[in-house]
Amino acid sequence: MKKKNLNFWQILTMNFGFFGVQFSFGLQQSNMSAIYKYLGAEESELPMLWLAGPITGLVVQPIIGAISDGTWSPKFGRRKPFFLVGAIAASVALVLMPYSSTIWMAASLLWILDAANNIALEPYRAFISDKLPSKQYSVGFLVQSFFTGFGSILANLTPAILISIGILTMSDKMDNGIPVATYWAFSIGAVASIVTILFSVLTTSEYPPSSKELEVIKKNNKKGVLFLIKNTFIEIKEAFVLMPKTMKQLIPVMFFPWYAMFCYWQYLTSALSLSLYNTTDDKSELFASAQLLTGNLNATYNFICLIIAFPLIPIAKKLGAKNLHFVSLFLGGTALVIMPFLNESLLFSIPNPFGEGSIVITQIYLFALFLGITWASMMSMPYQMLASSIPSNKTGVYMGIFNMFIVIPMIIQIFTMQYIVYPILDNPISVITLAGVFLIIGGVFSLFVKTSEEV
Questions:
Q1: Cystine design at 158: which of 23, 185, 233, 343 (Cβ 3.0–4.6 Å)?
Q2: Which residues contact 312 (CB under 8 A, 6 or more apart)?
Q3: Which region holds residue 258: left if phi is over 0, alpha if psi is between -120 and 50, else beta?
Q4: What CATH architecture applies to the domain 11-446?
Q5: In Å, how far are 55, 107, 445 from 183, measured between CA atoms?
Q6: Rounded CA gap, 203 and 190, in Å?
Q7: Where are the domains of the chain?
Q8: Closest of 289, 53, 28, 304 to residue 155, by C-alpha
Q9: What's the pLDDT band for 25 if we cut at 50, 70, 90?
Q10: Cα 34 to Cα 240: distance, rounded to the nearest angstrom
Q11: pLDDT 10s digits, 370-414
């Protein structure tokens, strides 16, 4: 079936639910380490407590990808049912998270939240290949980068906005020590997850499978649940065996940057608290300030991701995906390496749109500028390099497997950081520097990828 070119509004509409998924991920990235520390976790325990994300991604995404490839409902479509299930489960976990009374309650809810987000995320990646002709892949994936930035910006800024407009104060805490602003941010995230995905589901249609594909789907469905489960794992195994060369070459391109980003998310708050305020005491006002600053910095790099996503479209066409990816990762890696040398010296201030006074922009925000370019590229360029190299009828399973190139580095990071790297470095600032070096290494590897046009 020949796919129609979609206009820009249609591409925005089909990806709007990606905003809700990324809002949820943004809340995790900026708040989970702090939540764990409020509940009594030690610094060295943080990596293991982040295990939920990569493990659920490793298990859920390839399975959901394979299942969604073999799913079709004339009423609900192929990918959209998974969007909805993921959104509902994520919303429940988001509402409950701030009420966690113990570390393990928070960790358990994070497992549920990550599983739900992964159920929605993988079909969204496959949705681009399903709906768009290959020449519009760049636009489709960069629109997802735009919504990644937009969702994460609001997720990260919500606590600061609530405080700046005077609804809450930084000292407002729940009984478990978690800030009230965190509770409101997670509740808003729950609403965003449901509403945005419903919008995409209700406004976007899906192409039906070919008559041959439909016949296979009906035949498999008649064989029962056990057959479908067995067939899913057979499809995943076959996809591994027949993995395209381009996809194999992308393994180190994914490994080093995602190892780096997990270091960044886990240790940024502690690194900022230590480098700017010379403390990692989670009971102090200074640590709370570092948590709020983490949200602001993460919002900044996601804002850069948002505004740079569309300008990157013509640049990607001119430079090529792999060259653009190299430049982007080099910029972000260099920024993280110099981050410990930045301070809170005033650069400029802007009027506060949410209350009285001004918003102060300090030197520390400089690293977030370049990291935003990196993030926009990470959310789009590897998928563009991959999309044209995989068979169209296996998009879901291959996108699910490709996600393993994200979560396996995270799992390796957790265990190596917990038992090898952090005991050696013994400093959250050094972990951020390591993250910068790994981003640069990942960029170098991208130069060696042979895309389908070059093979």
A1: 185
A2: 142, 145, 324, 376, 377, 380
A3: alpha
A4: Up-down Bundle (1.20)
A5: 26, 16, 41
A6: 21
A7: 11-446
A8: 28
A9: confident
A10: 38
A11: 999 999 899 888 888 887 787 766 776 787 788 788 888 988 998
